[in-house]
Amino acid sequence: MNGIDQVMSEHSRYLVRIAYLYVKNWSTAEDIVQEVFVTYFQKSDQFRNEASLKTYLTKMTANRAKDYLRSWKHKKDVLFDTVFASTKGTDELMIEQERLAALEENLFKLSLTYREPLILYYYDEQSIAEIASYLQLNENTVKTRLRRAKQQMKEFFDEEEVEQ
Fold first, then answer.
1. 119, 21 Cβ separation under 8 angstroms
2. Which of 17, 19, 23, 86 sits CB 3.0–4.6 Å from 32 for a disulfide?
3. Could you report the per-residue pLDDT of 38-90, keeping only the tens digit for each?
4. Distance between CA atoms of 8 and 54, rounded to whole angstroms?
5. Which element (helix H / strand E) includes 142?
């Protein structure tokens, strides 16, 4: 296996999941990761080994996903999905999808300020110090944002239980 194949096989699944947590669409997440790999291999000489390759690729993926969220294409896709959404599947699949959708919906109700540290802490399993370094914040600020994000998520779920 050459270097390109090895890097892609080691990191692609993980990076697609990271991208998905930002953009909420598997196909778009895969496209973003492909762009990240292309960019990385075109500019791999710029990688200075100051951080691990995984951290470097994660940061590239997060930045590319944020760029996508600001793009016109994203706004157009959201409108298209809203107008032409379809539902299908077995009862079991539907229940599981509803649970994931509720979690996802509540996660995406959070502002990026709170969502990003939550994703990095629980999904990417980064330490408070790593998150602070990555987001260029004070560690106490990261702790506060995590606490507020968890509180907001709890409130979202409490509201849903009351509505049902």
1. yes
2. 19
3. 888 888 777 666 668 888 888 889 989 888 887 766 666 655 555 445 444 56
4. 11
5. helix 139-163
CA dihedral angle for residue 91, residue 96, residue 99, residue 101, rounded to 10 degrees: -100
Residue with tokens 């080994």: 49
In angstroms, the CA 78 to CA 68 distance is 12
Within 10 angstroms of residue 55's Cβ, the number of other Cβ atoms is 15
Closest Cα to residue 13, out of 33, 28, 27?
33
Q: 54 CB contacts (<8 Å, ≥6 apart)?
A: 11, 14
Amino acid at 26: W
145: which 2 tokens? Answer: 């944002």
Residue with tokens 């409130």: 155
Q: Counting Cβ atoms within 10 Å, is residue 14 exposed (0-12), middle (13-18) or buried (19+)?
A: middle
The answer to pTM > 0.85 is no
Which residues, in sequence order, are CB contacts of 33 under 8 Å at separation 6+?
Answer: 12, 15, 16, 19, 61
Helix (H) or strand (E) holding 66: helix 53-70
